[in-house]
Amino acid sequence: MSRVSVLGSGAWGTTLAQVLADAGHDVLIWGRNASVVHEINSDHTNHTFLPGAQLPSTIRATNDVSEAFSFADALVLAIPAQSLRENLLVWKSTFPVDKPIISTLKGIEADTHSRMTEIVVNELGASLENIGLITGPNLAAEMILRQPAGAVAASVNPSVSALIIKLFTTPYFRVYPSQDLVGCELAGATKSVIALAVGMAVGLDLGENTQSMIITRGLSEVARFGQAYGADPLTNLGLAGMGDLVASCGSALSRNRTFGEVLGRTGSMDKTRAHVSKTVEGVASAPAILELAHRVGVEVPIIEAVADVVSGNITPNQALDRLMTVPLEEEI
Questions:
Q1: pLDDT digit string (tens) for 145-192?
Q2: What is the 3-state secondary structure (H, E, C) of 199-243?
Q3: Strand order in the sheet with 101-103
Q4: Can you list the domains of the chain with their CATH numbers?
Q5: Fewer beta carbons below 10 Å: N end or C end of the chain?
Q6: Which of 10, 33, 31, 13 lies closest to 21, judged by CA?
Q7: What residues are labeled active site?
Q8: Residues 181/117, Cβ–Cβ less than 8 Å
Q9: pLDDT value of residue 123
């Protein structure tokens, strides 16, 4: 048994805590919201983020991040991607960088265009050898029901990947190793942008042909983009790539797809933000991913169209029209 602290008490952090507890580990959730922490400890529920779910009674929660740091053998990051640096700056003086750090975040920082593990290394001075990532087609609302699912444990250090597998593997959750940290991280960030595009198509009442085209051509963009930054192209055929893309683009439980649907119906970012209050990583990441693609000369027309929509430069209708005028080249 290991002791694991999950930093984040939202839907994703709480779901991961359940997986860890089901795998036989001692789990402590850190959260900023005192009422959520109290509810987890007293009722073993988190109705704000996971209505109807009953959590294992062994899971505890705390508002004291120092307690979470001292408790853990390993630390799991499960906070919104765009707030990671802000939190690390607050925690920097006491964060135990000698312990394994496992990121679960999918996004590119809007201001600096940094990957999440890059932020951890830069802000904490942590060694990349001590950092890992767990990623894949993992929708919290399904995982909390213990439905069968899979993920990838990525790290440049095989022993960290092995640790992640040991921590998270349960009868309903399988975890596979990968040394392609960059590829897995970039795939997890870019799939959110493609899911926004699919959602916009659904919101515009466009059918399966359109959605399939966007998913397939989107996967090509994800693969070209990742490969330009040294990723293994085969990563995109696995759970971190195609698996995550299909789940995010095909499920109504996906925040990015749902946001895209509302955006397609309303044609307005302001109206969509008012309707969808949850964190949507693809909205913040799209312009940053586009900039990273431009730096290495990779053409990403779907990502570019989404970035222009979320920046208010064009409408979803104009975005779809633009995609139908992209010059035709070899498909693969």
A1: 999 999 999 999 999 999 999 999 999 999 999 999 999 999 999 999
A2: HHHHHCCCCHHHHHHHHHHHHHHHHHHHHHCCCCHHHHHCHHHHH
A3: 60-62, 26-30, 3-7, 74-77, 101-103, 131-135, 149-154, 173-178
A4: 3-179 (3.40.50.720), 184-323 (1.10.1040.10)
A5: C
A6: 13
A7: 191
A8: yes
A9: 96
The CA distance from 315 to 45, in Å, is 41
pLDDT for residue 275 = 82
Which of 298, 85, 110 is CA-nearest to residue 189? 110
Length of the chain: 332
Residues facing residue 115 across a β-bridge? 108
What's the sign of the alpha-carbon dihedral 56, 57, 63, 66? negative
Nearest-angstrom CA–CA distance, 149 and 170:
10
> So what's the pLDDT on residue 327?
64
Residue 128 burial class via C-beta count within 10 angstroms: exposed 0-12, middle 13-18, buried 19 and up:
middle
Q: How many CB atoms lie within 10 A of CB 278?
A: 11
* Tokens 């893309």 found at: 245
pLDDT one-digit tens code per residue, 113-156: 999 999 999 999 999 999 999 999 999 999 999 999 999 999 99
Q: How confident is the model at residue 282 (pLDDT cuts 50, 70, 90)?
A: confident
d(CA 255, CA 289): 18
Helices (H), 92-207: 116-124, 140-143, 158-168, 181-203
**Chain Cα centroid distance, residue 33:** 21
